[in-house]
């Protein structure tokens, strides 16, 4: 029991550390620029604390249940050496993990409310989860056969750009955001461990070149599937959803509701996590025919995951969503857009530097690269890319430009850099674009975009409010590949110099 309490305290400190950059940036702007305490500030502060407790419980539950069981299953399937089983296991784990992703839940619920129900939250999550499951199966296939990742990415993003031409504008920003939030607190450790573990265990594979890339594929494919879903949902008709729908959102998220609402939310969380439990039990008992080593521990872990998810969602409604909207309203009220751009840049840079998934991937890359890559340099490049991306995304909302042009231009640039970049950096760069947004950053950035779109005259919340997460995913790829190309050219010039 004492060990579990210590682990929970460590997870709580970890969650508070992730929140700290957001708190520092918001307090600095409130104290130095706005010079006022925001309305409902105490409720927001309480919401942030609930978010931290929820994330800590969630992480603790993962450590007790999903992570150890998932790793044991992956090891057992790898030892069997069966490609169909590995691909099936990859699909099942990818699907079940993404269905329970907190950031995706938050974005899907916002999309449902703002679209006045035309976009169904559960359907959206099932589409994204199925996409990631298929990606995991495809990624396992690629690693086993040793196919170069860059051809998968180039062909994939050409498809992304083509689909974007035909997708209704109401779905484009949401589709790209849905891709950006699939790889986060649940999925990154499982996906990265599976890819690197496979590449390390297969003779002739390089962990840096072949092991990375699953995260990148998991970001890309949902962009295509969600846009196809949008084509079906809107069918060329004009959307009636707009700023009026935001009133309903704001009314609903002011408080978590009574006892009945709390019970219903807990059952909803159970529904979210149930697919992971069913996948694990099926593979454990029906395929491997081995019982769980500690079923009570696993059961407690799943209970903590459910309670943690509930606390997380309640904290979002009380804390992070209001902070994002409130800061957008206050900064727009000033005489210049400069402070909006500066806030977007600071939030992007500060939160990314504290992103735990980025720390983990950077460390793994440094170890696999044998001196070619420094983890601290990677973190700075990625944080700079996120800051630039969110700032450009905010400019798009302010100017009212079409997201199609920005997204298509961004990914055409990524495709060009992919052709020019040294092979060792391609898979890592794409993966880094997928781990830049944490479970606390995504809701704040989403709320900031929705707040800006709702406050600027002539903007549609559904069309203009989403998309910031997409920009945060594109530009780290650009900065990392650009840096690698530059360093490669410098090294070749140095070698030629007598």
From TrEMBL:
The chain crosses the membrane at residues 12-34, 40-62, 83-106, 126-144, 151-168, 180-199, 211-232, 266-288, 300-318, 338-359, 380-398, 404-421, 428-453, 465-486. Keywords: Membrane, Transmembrane, Transmembrane helix. Signal peptide: none annotated. It comes from the Bacteria. This is Uncharacterized protein DUF1538. It comes from Halomonas ventosae.
């Amino acid at each position: 029991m004492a060990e579990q309490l210590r682990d929970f305290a460590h997870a709580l400190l970890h969650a508070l550390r992730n929140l700290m950059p957001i708190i520092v940036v918001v307090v600095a702007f409130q104290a130095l620029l706005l010079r006022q305490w925001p309305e409902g500030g105490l409720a927001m502060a309480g919401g942030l604390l609930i978010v931290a407790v929820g994330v800590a419980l969630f992480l603790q539950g993962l450590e007790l249940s999903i992570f150890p069981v998932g790793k044991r299953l992956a090891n057992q399937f790898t030892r069997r050496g069966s490609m169909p089983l590995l691909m099936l296991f990859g699909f099942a784990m990818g699907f079940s993990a993404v269905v329970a992703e907190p950031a995706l839940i938050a974005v899907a619920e916002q999309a449902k409310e703002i679209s006045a129900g035309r976009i169904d939250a559960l359907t959206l999550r099932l589409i994204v989860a199925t996409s990631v499951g298929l990606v995991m199966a495809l990624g396992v296939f690629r690693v086993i056969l040793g196919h170069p990742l860059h051809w998968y990415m180039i062909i994939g993003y050409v498809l992304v750009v083509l689909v974007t031409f035909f997708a209704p504008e109401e779905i484009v920003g949401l589709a790209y955001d849905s891709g950006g939030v699939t790889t986060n607190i649940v999925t990154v450790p499982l996906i990265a461990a599976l890819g690197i573990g496979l590449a390390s265990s297969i003779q002739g594979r390089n962990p840096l070149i072949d092991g990375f890339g699953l995260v990148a594929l998991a970001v890309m494919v949902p962009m295509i599937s969600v846009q196809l879903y949008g084509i079906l949902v809107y069918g060329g008709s004009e959307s009636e959803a707009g700023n009026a729908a935001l009133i309903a959102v704001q009314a609903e998220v002011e408080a978590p509701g009574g006892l009945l609402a709390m019970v219903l939310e807990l059952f909803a969380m159970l529904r979210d996590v149930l697919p992971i439990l069913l996948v694990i039990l099926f593979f454990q008992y029906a395929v491997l025919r081995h019982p769980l080593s500690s079923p009570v521990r696993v059961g407690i872990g799943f209970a903590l995951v459910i309670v943690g998810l509930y606390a997380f969602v309640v904290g979002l409604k009380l804390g992070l969503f209001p902070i994002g909207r409130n800061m957008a309203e206050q900064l727009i009220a000033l005489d210049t857009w400069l402070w909006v751009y500066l806030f977007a840049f600071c939030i992007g840079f500060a939160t990314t530097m504290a992103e735990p998934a980025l720390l983990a991937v950077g460390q793994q890359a440094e170890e696999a690269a044998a001196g070619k890559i420094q983890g601290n340099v990677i973190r700075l490049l990625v944080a700079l890319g996120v800051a630039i991306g969110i700032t450009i995304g905010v400019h798009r909302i302010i100017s009212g430009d079409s997201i199609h042009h920005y997204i298509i231009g961004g990914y055409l640039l990524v495709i060009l850099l992919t052709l020019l970049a040294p092979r060792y950096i391609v898979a890592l760069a794409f993966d880094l674009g997928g781990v830049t947004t944490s479970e606390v950053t995504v809701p704040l950035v989403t709320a900031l975009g929705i707040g800006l779109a709702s406050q600027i005259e002539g903007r549609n919340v559904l069309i203009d409010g989403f998309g910031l997460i997409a920009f945060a995913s594109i530009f780290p790829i650009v900065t990392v590949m650009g840096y690698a190309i530059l360093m490669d050219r410098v090294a070749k010039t140095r070698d030629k110099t007598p």
